[in-house]
Amino acid sequence: MAELNLNSPLQYVKGVGPRKAEALAKLGMETVEDLLFYFPRRYLDRTNIVPIGEIKVDQPVTIIGRVRAHGILHGKRRRYEVILEDDTGAITLLWFAGVKYWERLFKKNQIFAATGTVTYFMGYQLVHPDLERLEDDSDRMIHAGRIIPVYPQTSELNKAGLNSKGIRQVTSFIFDNLAQKIADPLPPAERNSVGLITLHEAVHKIHYPDNRDQIETCRRRLAFDELLQFQTLVFRNKMKKDTVVRSHRYHPPGEKLKQLKQLLPFKLTSGQKKVLSEIFADLQSQHPMTRLLQGDVGCGKTVVAIIAALYVAENGMQVAFMAPTEILAEQHFRNWESILGEIGIKVGLLTASLTPAQKKKIAHQCAEGNIHVLFGTHALIYDYVKFANLGLVVIDEQHRFGVQQRDKLHAKGDNPDLLVMTATPIPRTLALTLYGDLDISTVDTLPPGRKVTRTVWRTHDARDKVHQFITDEINKGGQAYIIYPLIEKSDEGDIENVEDAYETLTRGPFADLRVGMVHGRIKSKERDELLARFRDGDLDVILATTVIEVGIDNPNVTLMVIEHAERFGLAQLHQLRGRIGRGERQATLVALAHPPISDIARRRLQFLVSTNDGFEIAEADLELRGPGEIFGVRQSGLPELKAARLSVDKDLLEASRRLLERLFGADADLDTNYRNLYNYLIETVDSRYADFHGG
Ligand code: ADP
Ligand code: MG
To answer: Distance, CA 377 to ligand 1 centroid (Å)?
Structure first.
């Protein structure tokens, strides 16, 4: 057999064959290179394995054992139990959900590694542990002191015989038969200055580490390359944008702006004034604006966008203002319709729930230029919506949209200005990476007179007291939200849902209160009527799902209870909290957690209680969850990061950014090594991220 190189098809590697090749191809792996860049998810070795006989309560452990028995237990809560034993003892693994899956997975005498935190209830147990099926030989390897890579698994891979052991066999053959070392695009001088190993060593040892420290050394090298590629995309987008020259020039601000400022019921905060001057400078410059406006929940971003919109309208251009939910789009429309109307600006609203005739009418008016500011949901991006003269696109809560949606709206004009807003603040290093092609403005003040919302977290045993507290609060003239994770019963297990809760509460503890229910499956007309009645004080309590998470504004609500707070992310909890504390009175958030509560969930809740600062929350969320989920990296269309960990790799982020600034610098006089790196990066991002749409 011929020697292998990185481009060799996997199918011809010894031991792979058509069946395995097919399973790998399903995961996008066709060549030797693809498989070598399929990194272990984690590692098992003796240093992190604890004999069952030695475990203690609250200790985070990995244990390895044989299945002695397994099955469903019916009791107060239906659960799946597995007894795992090693030479020193036995422990129970426990799941409250997914019973069918576990039933199929376990067989007597199989060996598993289970990772989790030890709890005690009539014996030691691990609730919802992280699980890895092991082969006999990995068990032996571990006892021989080796480090075992564990790969991400899919059922297809498993069926084709490509469990972790199978993958190890293939990669081991590849490294033995590779004709050449993997070429390193990074010049040696660069490697040395950042303190990185060669690419070949990193790829090899990430699969076969000699010790724990080496894994981290490899990961850092691979992370650096990933960050370089990732930011190459961003740099290129920025370069492209900087070449666009706007076709329309704005006049200096005129009468209408003055009128609006007089009509506002409040004075702008210093933070609002600062970002407005940044936005106005953009609008008056020769390149179109691409700006991210960030600021904590409730800091008053909307009025900033409205003032920008008015300026654009005053110059005879149209504005598209897109919000992620109907409730929010309608709220913006209703709040601004009359004020803008008074100064002669025509506004419109377009959402999915209008009748076809209404949609047609709005679209027609917009195409004729008779609507100046069009508010709406993603209904705005449909093809039938056309603008006569789109000058500004505003995207509210932009992390709720994909980049494609944003692009599509943007394409309805001739390079219109773009203002995207988010209440999920982004730490600076990360912002430069993810949004390096956007300019960033931050509103760093809150309107005067806001009281900091008091936050407590409790386990759900406290529920009766909480219900009493709600009743008292309402008797004092307040209003309350109770938030649930689900609309209705699910087979996930015993998770509170808003429909059942509505039944129980209105019959029991809240029989004398006026209660309403809001969730995504209630018709928008009904939902709006309900929220309007709530706002008018005709309802006391709203039971809701997270549909009320973004933007909803009712200053009289002083209390929020979140059921199953352990299931929500930190940023989301903070967003929900932003719905209260908008008025004069002291507001309270009660986060109710239902056991089992994982360590991470506990830390999230403690953190939520400890601060109201959105930036601190964002940093902590990043550490606790990783960036993908918080900032919507995945849905934003940015490539997923496999090796980089944005919360810890700040130095790599900065180093990779400095390198790119040199490579992309206008007057760069690059020597061959660096010229090659530049070409390599451009080629790689072109082929690897062909379907990436720039911000
Ligand atoms: P967010 O930044 O979360 O989108 P909003 O724009 O919804 O915040 O503003 C929150 C509330 O603060 C609204 O009721 C708004 O009218 C009010 N508000 C905004 N700016 C000011 C200000 N300068 N002074 C007082 N209240 C303000
Ligand atoms: Mg908002």
So the answer is: 21
Task: Decide if 143 is inside a domain.
Answer: yes
Specify if 251 maps to a domain.
no
- pLDDT one-digit tens code per residue, 547-581: 876 656 788 899 999 999 999 988 889 989 988 98
Q: Which of 548, 578, 611 is the last residue of a domain?
A: 611
User: Is there an atom of ligand 1 within 6 Å of 269 CB?
Assistant: yes
Q: How confident is the model at residue 667 (pLDDT cuts 50, 70, 90)?
A: low
Q: Which residue has the tokens 């920025």?
A: 238
* CATH, residue 576: 3.40.50.300
Q: Phi and psi (nearest 5°) for 516?
A: -125, 160
Is residue 394 lining ligand 1, measured as CB closer than 6 Å? Answer: no
551 within a domain of the structure (yes/no): yes
Report the b/e string of 560-575 with b at 16+ CB within 10 A: bbbbbbbbbebbbbbb
Whether the CB of 423 sits within 6 Å of ligand 1: yes
For strand 60-73 and strand 89-95, is the pairing parallel, antiparallel, or unpaired? unpaired
> How far apart are alpha carbons 659 and 665 in whole angstroms?
10
Mean pLDDT of the chain: 88
Cα 210 to chain centroid, rounded = 34
Q: What pLDDT score was predicted for residue 401? A: 81
H helix count then E strand count, the chain:
25, 21
User: In a mutational test of the pocket of ligand 1, which residue from 263, 294, 299 has the highest number of ligand atoms less than 8 Å from its CB?
Assistant: 299
DSSP letters, 617-641, are: HHHHHHHHH-HHHHHTTTTTTPPPP
Domain that holds residue 506: 454-611
Domain end residue (candidates: 150, 181, 208): 150
Name the burial class of residue 189, with classes exposed (0-12), middle (13-18) and buried (19+) by CB atoms within 10 angstroms of its CB.
exposed
- Residue-wise over 292-316: b if at least 16 C-beta within 10 A, else e? bbbbbbbbbbbbbbbbbbbbbbbbe
- 584-594 mean pLDDT: 92
Place of tokens 């109710």: 592
Q: Report the sign of the C-alpha dihedral through residues 633, 637, 640, 644, in that order.
A: negative
DSSP 497: B
Q: What does the block give as tokens for 461?
A: 């045993």
Sheet of strand 390-395, all strands in order from the earlier edge strand to the far edge: 347-350, 373-376, 318-322, 390-395, 417-422, 290-295, 439-443
Q: Which amino acid is at 523?
A: K
Quick check: is 538 in a domain? yes
553 vs 545: CA distance, rounded Å: 16
Distance (Å, rounded) from C-alpha 39 to C-alpha 150? 9
pLDDT the model gives residue 248: 84
State the closest ligand 1 atom to the C-alpha of 272, by its place in the atom list counted from 1: 23
CB 642 within 8 A of CB 695: no
Q: List, edge to edge, every strand of the sheet that includes 557-563.
A: 454-459, 588-593, 557-563, 479-483, 541-544, 515-518
Domain count, the chain: 2
With both helix axes pointing from N to C terminus, report the angle between 614-625 and 570-577 in degrees, rounded to the nearest 10: 150
Is 614 a pocket residue for ligand 1 (Cβ < 6 Å)? Answer: no
Outline where DSSP puts E strands in 415-495. 417-422, 439-443, 454-459, 479-483
What confidence tier does 625 reach under pLDDT thresholds 50, 70, 90? low
**Cβ proximity of 593 and 463 under 8 Å:** no
At 21, which helix (H) or strand (E)? helix 17-26
CB-CB neighbours of 335 under 10 Å: 15
Position 72 pLDDT exceeds 80? yes
